[in-house]
Amino acid sequence: MNSLRWLDLAVIIAYMAAMLWLGLRYTRRQKTTEDYFVAGRSIPAWAMGVSIFATLISSITFVAYPGGAFGGNWAELVPGFMVVIVLVLVGSVIIPFFREVVRMSAFEYFEKRFGYSVRLYTSLGFTLGHFSKMGFVFYLVALTVQSLTGWDMSAVIIASGVVTVIYTYAGGLEAVIWTDVAQGFIMWLGIAISLGTLFYLMPGGPAAGFQLAWENHKFDLGTLKFDFTAKSFWVMAAYGFFWYLQKYTADQTIIQRYLVAKDDRAAIRGVGLGALLCIPVWALFLLIGTLTWSYYKLSGEVLPPHIVKPDQFYPHFLTTHVPAGLAGVIMASLFAAAMSTISSDLNCFAVVGVEDFYAKLRKNTTDRERLFMGKVIVAIAGALCTLVALWLARTQGTALSLYFTATSILAGGLFGVFALAFLSTRAHLRGLWVGIVACIVFTGYATFTSGKTPVLDLGAWNFKLNGVLIGVIGHLLVIVIGYGASLVIPGPRAPAGLTVWGWREQRRRIASAL
To answer: What domains can you pick out in the chain, each with its CATH number?
Structure first.
């Protein structure tokens, strides 16, 4: 089957129409930047949590996780466990701190702590990293849809891009959050249909599929050997730990969610719910890949010759085995995974563009002017993201690695910047920049000299560790070298209330005075 049946097509059209209707419902409420950027700070904790979950689950998860489990094991789940550890360690402190210190942009804090140059660096780092991801998310949706339906990739990219931009442009963050809620439920429905189909069709029943996968170590979380060149348990744990530290301390898409809640308790509950929803979804996508592997092993089905890569088997299974109508729901859940991520990024770009750049260049702007500029940025960013995805479709993704390389070099060490700002009273601007430069130099070296065919082959001096550790080491370099340089180079101490120590002392004084 190379095209969706009419019932499946009707489901997808109904999904797109529902997202437009839901998003446009909130158009008239967007009268100020408070409404447009932080939803009037009135979102319930449960909706905030579902929105975080929907934002973190993208089309990359939808395709890459089943493909990874089909071709390997469950090592990809290890980073997800780290989100719980990160939130236990920092959640009760970081969330109320940001709610008190920043108004809309997460990067306001870095200007207060170090100066505008650091705000500019962190804001650009966030923007570059997320913009590269946005184009890839749309490209991956189009690639998967084309393999399932035979539809033109450009048409898929343009249709999903236009719908996402319209409701994000018109309804602001409130529309983003409530469409995220709907899209989160659609994703769960798609997972349930996929697993239900696999359970029903598995030769010998689900137990046979689980047993075969268990006997072949498909549920392993990676080797426990301290091997930092392979995708071992410890490598993935380190990667996940620092990735989520950066996500929850220096990423606008998450920190903006802290600000939409009614109070600190609601924000903490919402963030915790978002993390707890993500972990089972990651596990279920891996289970889908594992059971797809078991199905093809047990059934002995003859596959077309072009189905050779691990991430092709699950889409092929959907195309050939899921009944009419239900396949459309799964396709809608794929669109939901992509659009929930993109809409959040678009609104974040509007916040960052207005608060970190536009308002700095034009000092005396009115709130109405900032609101208008925020909408303009959503439209421009959405159009550029769609164009990038179309370009990737034309080049078949070959140009993507170069862009990822450039952004990884320029956007490294954001958690390291936060750690120095938050934990050290001695760290200052000049010392921090020494650490940032060291991180950029190292990241460039490691990126260009790593892999089987490095861009720059230095022989014995090539970076030999697993590539996911480049970011981990970058954070540590910012912290260690930045702190050391701050001790050697004279500079001012942190302003009161902008480190964890001063902030907690201020809160104790306020509490004792009440």
So the answer is: 6-396 (1.20.1730.10), 412-514 (no CATH)
